């Protein structure tokens, strides 16, 4: 039962809203790899004017889900700040542990 993680980061650069969307099955750590949301955003959006953006001006939406015997389990967090990433990572790890425990009980 794989876990799908998606992160959307939105911000305004030079008067234009830019958006970065990333999906993977490896978790939040694999998306951020030690980078802040600001660093990840600026590395992945078109920014021809070399505009800067402050961390507090970014909007993060995080979705974590996995298939389970009763359907889909997971959580969503909208308009979170950078401090929430650690909390979301811990929630995702707990969800993954629960999936592994349920798998081991069935086999």
Explain this structure to me?
The chain is an alpha+beta fold. The chain has one domain (3-106). It has 3 helices and 4 strands; from the N terminus they run ββααββα. The chain has helices at 28-32, 37-44, 84-106; strands spanning 3-13, 16-24, 59-68, 71-80. A hairpin with a 2-residue loop joins strand 1 and strand 2. The chain is elongated. 14% of the residues are buried. The model has no long low-confidence stretch (mean pLDDT 82).
Estimated helix fraction: 25-40%
Average of the residue pLDDT scores? 82
Termini separation:
13 Å
Question: The biggest beta sheet, please?
Answer: 4 strands, antiparallel
Low-pLDDT regions: none
Q: How many domain modules?
A: 1
Secondary structure: number of strands: 4
Number of helices: 3
Query: Cα-atom Rg, whole angstroms?
Result: 16 Å
**What is the molecular shape?**
elongated
Fraction in beta strands? 35-45%
The topology string of helices and strands comes to EEHHEEH
Specify the structural class: alpha+beta
Question: What is the topology, as strand order, of the major beta sheet?
Answer: 2-1-3-4
